[in-house]
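$ ./design --mode recover --in tokens.txt
reading tokens...
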């Protein structure tokens, strides 16, 4: 890869919330992981979010479950590739920080991590489906 291309990519990512980038251009492939994922940020209701800030896990309307919501508009993927198993299956207990899925936004593959531990009770989106900002992806019960 051309060093100037790499510098341009890094400059474009500077100051964003992106923590991982997978880039393929013909025979060239680049995977970047930068820093730690940011802590959740609460956005006042009167402000429209313009940066990809992960919303906190929202409590569900029924019983004591909670949901994990999409922090981006993009495409939902349950696995890293079509040949790989899903990151998490119904009934599985996940730990805080464990990767749950990928939301592809603007050709960037963004890993969505669990913000708290829980047992997956329901996958709310079909693999490969488009998702909106804040749309519920998974339902968990506390463990």
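writing sequence...
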């Amino acid at each position: 890869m051309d060093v100037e291309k790499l510098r341009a990519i890094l400059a474009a990512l500077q100051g964003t919330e992106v923590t991982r980038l997978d880039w393929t251009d013909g025979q060239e492939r680049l995977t970047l992981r930068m820093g730690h994922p940011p802590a959740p940020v609460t956005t006042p209701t009167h402000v429209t979010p313009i940066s990809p800030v992960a919303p906190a896990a929202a409590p569900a309307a029924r019983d004591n479950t909670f949901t994990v919501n999409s922090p981006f508009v993009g495409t939902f993927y349950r696995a890293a590739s079509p040949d790989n198993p899903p990151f998490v299956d119904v009934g599985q207990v996940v730990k805080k920080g464990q990767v749950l899925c990928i939301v592809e936004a603007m050709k960037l593959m963004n890993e969505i991590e669990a913000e708290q531990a829980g047992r997956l009770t329901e996958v709310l989106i079909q693999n490969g489906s488009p998702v909106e900002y804040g749309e519920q992806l998974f339902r968990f019960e506390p463990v």
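exit 0
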